[in-house]
Amino acid sequence: MDPGRDFVPVRYHQYDRGSLEQTVDITYRSDETHKWVPAGWTNAQFHGSEHLGRSMTVKVTDVRINVELPADLFDLPPLPDGTWVRNYMTDEDYIVQKGGKRRDVTPGEYDGNNYQYLLHSDPPGSRRRWLLRVLLGSVIVLAAMAFVRHVRRRSRSPSN
């Protein structure tokens, strides 16, 4: 943090078990309205503490703060068939099957080699759920038929 520029962050280092993994160095420029705005940054990722894996330098050419954004700006188009989706918000994985159908991938189901199988199969338990629905529907229909039969018998029997 730079106390001379309202404590804006200027450097970030990430370590794992004492080994440097990532650095981010941020530069700023003075702005009449917002005081300090980012002018750019460099992001470096390391393999081992001394070996640069990749680096990216970004230059900020335009800054707009608190502008109204269109409501559909972040809408995603339909995902292509075969797309593997990892939703970190809900902690779910699924594959988009043909026609946009969602095929949930349960924990431990993917073994690193069975993507094609998962893409073209139903999730575990889906056949059991189908069978359960058929059985439950049949029980409801039979109960309704028994009720109707009971009502008809009562209406035909002589009154006491």
Describe the protein in words.
- The protein has about 160 residues and is an alpha+beta fold.
- Among the domains are: about 5-60; about 85-125, no CATH class.
- About 20% of the residues lie in helices and about 35% in strands.
- It has helices spanning about 115-120, 125-155, and strands spanning about 10-15, 20-30, 35-45, 50-60, 85, 90-95, 100-105.
- The strands form two sheets. The chain has a four-stranded antiparallel beta sheet with strand order 1-2-3-4, with no helix packed on it. A three-stranded antiparallel beta sheet has the order 5-6-7, with no helix packed on it.
- The longest helix has about 30 residues, at about 125-155.
- The radius of gyration is 31 Å and the shape is elongated.
- The mean pLDDT is about 90.
Outline the low-pLDDT stretches: none
Report the count of strand segments: 7
Biggest sheet overview:
4 strands, antiparallel
The total count of helices amounts to 2
Radius of gyration (CA) equals 31 Å
Averaged pLDDT: 88
**Distance N terminus to C terminus?**
94 Å
Beta-strand percentage? Answer: 25-35%
Strand order of the largest sheet: 1-2-3-4
Q: Could you state the order of secondary-structure elements as H and E?
A: EEEEEEEHH
